[in-house]
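debug: dumping io for the single-chain case to check the tokenizer round-trip. Nothing else runs in this session.
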Amino acid sequence: MSARLCVNACVPPSNHGKAPHSMRFHPFAGKKRGLSQEKLLSPKELGALVGLSTAQIRALMNDGRLEFVEITPKTRLLTMTCWERFQKRATKLRGVERERDGSVSSVN
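debug: decoded output
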């Protein structure tokens, strides 16, 4: 019988190792409190889903560019939400697309 972990958010790279009490994990939390459960993935599993090697995923985690959930100092797991956040931060938009999104102000 395996316990399912409930994760309500990823720990940002700057806060690894010092998660606040509100970010604690409980094997049976979630259903009664209405928290959404998200599957925790190993670096190998995430790499297989997104087309990267395990070493590339670990390098992104070690660089602090890819958020992860630290279960123990040796066990670091990921979620698809963390991967999607990484993709948004890492994606560069071309000039025309940036102007359309309003993220670049034009100078007259």
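debug: round-trip ok. The radius of gyration is 17 Å.
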